[in-house]
């Protein structure tokens, strides 16, 4: 049973809150852990040069800030599709861990796998030429979409933001790249 399914039973106890967001609505962060129940969410920050996409979150992905002194004002999130998230406060996560230790471990394992994924993104951003960056990112996102059983619609501006390339450069390079999208899980526009 997935983390999402196991968390549903803690809603009635008040240990887990469920929040629903419309497309384009900004998510407000509080200290704790968020688990994506459904939808695709874009995590980003603003830099001097503009918006920088940090990650795309799918069903079952966990994002959390558990340190007491962590500031959440540096990051923003916005749903790309209608989305629902579970929110777990720090003290509620401890109670869930006492009742069901394997669930708490699975939540932390998901956070660690997210770190491994972000490491892969960093290796893509800092290695190779523009064509390789775009191709490798598309392959990585296709694998993630397939693992999560979801479909992903990407804008070229998002690809540019993640890879650190200009929008115009991405448009030119994507005309040259033939991306084989075997399962049809990624659509570009």
TrEMBL record:
<dbReference type="InterPro" id="IPR014710">
    <property type="entry name" value="RmlC-like_jellyroll"/>
</dbReference>
<dbReference type="InterPro" id="IPR000595">
    <property type="entry name" value="cNMP-bd_dom"/>
</dbReference>
<protein>
    <submittedName>
        <fullName>Putative transcriptional regulator, Crp/Fnr family</fullName>
    </submittedName>
</protein>
<feature type="domain" description="Cyclic nucleotide-binding">
    <location>
        <begin position="31"/>
        <end position="96"/>
    </location>
</feature>
<dbReference type="Pfam" id="PF00027">
    <property type="entry name" value="cNMP_binding"/>
</dbReference>
<dbReference type="InterPro" id="IPR018490">
    <property type="entry name" value="cNMP-bd_dom_sf"/>
</dbReference>
